[in-house]
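Problem: given the chain below (332 residues), write out its structure.
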Amino acid sequence: MEQHDDAAGRHTPVLLQRCLDLLAPALAAPGAVMVDSTLGMGGHTEGVLRAFEHVRVVGIDRDPQALALAGRRLAVFGDRFTGVHAVYDEIRDVLDDLGIASVQGVLMDLGVSSLQLDEADRGFAYAQDAPLDMRMDPTRGPTAADVLNTYDERDIARVLRVYGEERFAPRIAREVVRRRAADPWRRTGELVDLVRACIPAATRKTGGHPAKRTFQALRIEVNGELAALERALPASVEALAVGGRIVVEAYQSLEDRLVKRALAAGATSSAPPDLPVEPETHTPYLRLLTRGAEEADEAELARNPRAQSVRLRAAERTRPTPDHLRTTRRAA
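Solution.
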């Protein structure tokens, strides 16, 4: 695999200034710590470390190559940066290992990273022929080829329909199973050709590349992305000190729906609506900082076309989570 050391030159962080502005009130505290839950090539973390000279950042990523690239990029900041090989739903364990009880900020930039898209051999991009891999951590777990070669037709259709919102999931799944009987799936180019053949020509004229939804679905399945996100959101909120802030950037509707639900749950009273007085234990423990999901403006899109589909949401912790609403263990 070709190696690239210029992480800064290859990656423009999405909505960086907006993220910094939202995090600033929390990160102004002396000794503030932020977790970059999706470190990638370190663009957001570099922005934070330059903007807030006293802040320490713990960067989490499941991709060893991303950690290595970001580590070289951020070495200039010394012990203000700590990189950890983990998945972001392990945030509590990561902080416990580092002796950190709570943090003032959590940043999550979801989806596939620039590094993974740009490295052809990783198999994330439908525009380049490559092995059907798609693992964010290439050291473990099944590949996209394993999914296509071992799942039954019904399960393949379910993955494509649920995670890719693909209208033609049954047709694609049927063809995947039929063709693998003669030759196992190995290459992304072969899959792109199959998907294109399964989607009617009239439909292919709109909605972008015909394989986009299938590749998204396989990537989510291979990496367990939505299940990890569903665990990571409450765990990240529980890691926040009172006054701490969480900022999340999502790039497709399934992710954004989970983010919206988790933040709204914390910002909504849990008291029955007919109670004359709201008990203190039922008051919200989050305050929403954005009105709905924020999108990239024209200036941001001109700088960074990969911001096209971003949906940003943020919230501030106003008090500890009441016991009856907590789904994860609290900070020590």
